[in-house]
Amino acid sequence: MRDSTATNQAEKDGPPNMSVRSFYVIDEAEAKLELVCPRTVSCVDIIAISARDVVAMVISKSPNCFRPAKILVLFCRHI
Rounded mean pLDDT of the chain? Predict the structure, then answer.
């Protein structure tokens, strides 16, 4: 995800996203995925798949279903 510059405020620093924490997790996931499948998976993909997995984890009350990195790598290979 892009960071703010002196002339441009990044979306992640905008008022609607001020309550969102841990953007570094998305940045780290994106960096790792870039090594496996360059210029293929976007931050939006990471957020969407992670959000899906968090909902599944909460509904099932089990952390075992939370494996976004594995799912994203599989997703990457099928594109």
Answer: 76
Q: How high is the pLDDT of residue 73?
A: 56
72, 41 contact by CB (below 8 A): yes
DSSP class of 2: P
Cβ pair 12, 47 in contact under 8 A? no
Instruction: Kindly report whether the global pTM for this prediction surpasses the value 0.70.
Output: no
Instruction: Give 41: exposed, middle or buried? Use CB within 10 Å, 0-12, 13-18, 19+.
Output: buried
